[in-house]
Amino acid sequence: MKLKSALSAPEGWETISAETHFEDAHLTVSTVEVRSPEGLKVHRWTVVRRKAAVIVAPLTADGKLVLIRQERVPIRAALWEVPAGQVDDANDTDTDKLAAVALRELREETGYELSEGGEVLPLGHFFSSPGFTDEQGFFFLARTVAPGASGSSPAESESILDCRAFGPEEIASMIVTGEIRDANTLGICAKLVARGLLSLDAQVFSDGPA
To answer: Which residue, 170, 159, 152, is CA-closest to 69?
Structure first.
C-alpha cells in the first residue's frame, strides 16, 4: 500500500521523478526530484512520508500537565513527553476524528480521561522535521482530565515507564534542564503559552543555564 501524504500538493511545485526505496504501513522513503515555483533549479531530495500524528496536552483540574516517561529506541533514552500517537488513516485530517484519536491515545498511554464537563480543543499543527519528512502533528488540549477507572493500556510496541502530573514551575524547570527535549512536548508547550493556556515562570528560564 502506497502511503500518501495528508498534505495537499502546493500550487506551483512540480514533481519530476520519484523513486521509492522502502515502505511499510507507517512510512515511505523515496528520492524525489522537484522544481519549486521559483523554477531556478531541480531539487533532488530523500523524503520520508509518514502518517500524521496527534499530540495531546492533558491538564488536570489543578492546572498540572500529565506527562509519560517513555523509552525511545533511536536515541537510546527515556524521555518525559506528552501523550501522542499516529493517525490510522494517513489522509484523514478531520478535526473531530483527530480529537477522538487524541483522547484514545490519552487513555491508552496515561489511563487519564476527560472529566465530566471536560473539553478537547484543537490548537493547530506543526511539522516535526521538515528538512526530511512531511510528518505533521496536530495539537490538542484536553481539560480537565482525571485518572480513569480502567487504567492505561499502551500498545505492545511502547515502553512507558512512568506517568505523572507536573505543575507549571516543574515543566519550566524540566525544559531548562533538558528533561523535556522532544519536539512534540516543546512545541505544544510553546503553543499553550502563546495561547495563554499555560503560564511558565519566566524566572525559571532566566535562572537556568545559558
So the answer is: 159
Sign of CA dihedral 101, 71, 172, 130: negative
**Residue-range definition of the domain harbouring residue 127:** 53-207
Q: Is residue 3 part of a domain?
A: no
- Angle at alpha carbon of residue 153, lines to 110 and 55, rounded to 5°: 45
Calpha distance 169→163 (Å, rounded): 18
**Whole-model pTM?**
0.87
pLDDT digits (tens, 9 = 90+) for 3-44: 555 555 667 899 999 999 999 988 999 999 999 998 888 999
Query: What is the number of alpha carbons within 13 Å of residue 119 lying toward its C-beta?
Result: 3
Does residue 192 lie within any of the structural domains? yes
Distance (Å, rounded) from C-alpha 195 to C-alpha 133? Answer: 27
- Tell the burial category of 197 from Cβ atoms under 10 Å away from its Cβ (0-12, 13-18, 19+): middle
| Closest-CA residue to 145 (of 61, 45, 41, 208) | 61
Helices (H), the chain: 95-110, 168-177, 183-194, 202-207
The residues facing 67 across adjacent strands are 164
Do 55 and 138 contact (CB within 8 A), yes or no? yes
Residues in the chain: 210
User: How many separate domains does the chain show?
Assistant: 2
Residue 144 shares a structural domain with residue 166: yes
Q: Are strands 136-147 and 53-60 parallel, antiparallel or unpaired?
A: parallel
